[in-house]
Known about the structure:
This protein is α+β, with helices and mostly antiparallel strands and 600 residues long. It has helices spanning 2-42, 48-80, 110-119, 167-178, 225-228, 297-305, 320-323, 354-362, 366-371, 402-411, 439-454, 466-476, 495-498, 519-528, 534-551; strands at 81-86, 90-96, 124-126, 132-134, 137-142, 148-153, 194-199, 202-206, 252-260, 268-275, 288-294, 311-313, 329-335, 338-344, 378-379, 415-416, 422-424, 427-428, 430-436, 458-464, 481-487, 554-559, 561-567, 594-599. Helix 8 packs antiparallel against helix 10 (402-411) and helix 14 runs antiparallel to helix 15 (534-551). The protein starts with a helix and ends with a strand.
Amino acid sequence: xxxxxxxxxxxxxxxxxxxxxxxxxxxxAATQADYSLNTLFFKRLWRLQNVRRFxxxxxxxxxxxxxxxxxxxxxxxxxxLTTVPANGGIYREGMxxxxxxxxxxxxxxPADSSVARLVFSGLFTLSPTGELEPNLASDISVDDxxxxxxxxxxxxxxxxxxxxxxxxxxxxxxxxxxxxEVRSPLEPxxxxxxxxxxxxxxxxxxxxxxxxxFKFSLVNGIVPAHIMNTIDPADLRxxxxxxxxxxxxxxxxxxxxxxxxxxxxxxYEKVTxxxxxxxxxxxxxxxxxxxxxxRIEDPMIKAFENKEISAMVGLYSVSDQLIDGRDELQEFSxxxxxxxxxxxxxxxxxxxxxxxxxxxxxxxxxxxLRSSVSYPLVEVDSPFLRSHFAYDxxxxxxxxxxxxxxxxxxQEGWVRGEDGIRRKExxxxxxxxVSQSLTEYASVSAELQKQWQRIGVELEAVLQPEADIQSGAxxxxxxxxxxxxxxxxxxxxVFAYWHSSQADPRVxxxxxxxxxxxxxxxxxxxxxxxxxxxxxxxxxxxxxxxxWIDDVPAIALYQPRFLYVVQGxxxxxxxxxxxxxxxxxxxxxxxxxxxxxxxx
Length: 600
């Protein structure tokens, strides 16, 4: 019992000592905490402002160093980096007109011709220098008689659907062109030409008569026989092949066509094309193209300003408002192998009188007419262009001479009246000029009215839409003076415009717009187109030049231009002298519209 009490007493003592010890430890810890909080926090609290300044200072320094480094790197870009053209991107063009078909057998409008040129290939291509270059063909030769043209085809070409291109496709294309049921606008040029396949990659064209310029007609697109054989020729114009599933061999494949908008004026067609990665030449460097066809200029220009399109086709000039603020705006102005002339209808009175025509030519200041247009133009002073080998600088049209003009008119009995207009008996010397309703032609017509009024000739100018010009003035020759442009091409064969047979109303084209007839000129035109030697052809054309200058069936003015307006980069584009607007695509596979930086 005593032992138990003693043990309990010892336990109590130990417990008290332990509690007192823990209490002292807690008191010591609290005292230490108070000391530390007071010493390390409250006594240093005043230093926070200095710490903040220190922190802000270093942060500012780091930011300044970073900005300086970035600025320095950018400043050094010009020494170590350069901007280069890059592949890829979608190129978007806008043009005036409407899209109706991609089929090259029917393509006439700018939009149709553009799409057809990108989707379909021809046997040959015209370069901007007027040279004929192989495309689907690899070579051409002519027999000794000059009647049989033999074309050798490439053997590495495939249609967009994978089928192999062969001579059968070429023969089928020209059979369709010659078939009256197809109603191709190319048909008149292919009358009586026999097309045959010698083997899988050789085609012959047999002409009824020698024609030295024939090879230049081999640039139209070729269509696939394996598809054409499934379509009735009479139904080809309405076939889905034209607008839904055209299959060509060109650098781009047809994707789709979409009509955007419901308003008649603002509606446009959007044709989307994709790169042909299997193109037999090198594939295009851009991924695709979009062609938009607008009815009028305003919505196209608005789309251009909003950067919905990168280029415009169909404008005759660019306003200052469009140029302002656009550093990367480019204007490619390219003369075309055409000639704008004043055609004097020799079948009408008094223009059936050569002296009157000569007086009008003397009274026309062609320099002033060209200056009336707001952009520079290439002068034409002959039935040939200066780029034609047949052009002779010593044989050009009648010069400007007002005194001589008045003298000739007086000689023919035309006397000035009180109002300044000449009269002969009871008839006023009044002429009617018809032209297309373009700003360019309006300026020329207004200036011509002033010039001819000075020699006592009254001129009424009637400007009409292109459709009315074609159906009326061109088809029926119902004018006295026609201000119009004719396509000549790189070869000086102008038979269609000046040979008397082409003035006959029974001729479908009837392109002799002056109704000019001269036996010497006819003979020279016939001889010039049936020779292949350049110098010999030039000599054969000399009598025609002499007759044309003496007879004055027309007054030559200038070569019209093709204006291509582009914003942003466009590398690889090549201009020169185009036969028509689609020649802008001559180097389309080399076009690049993107830029990227690279180390020098």
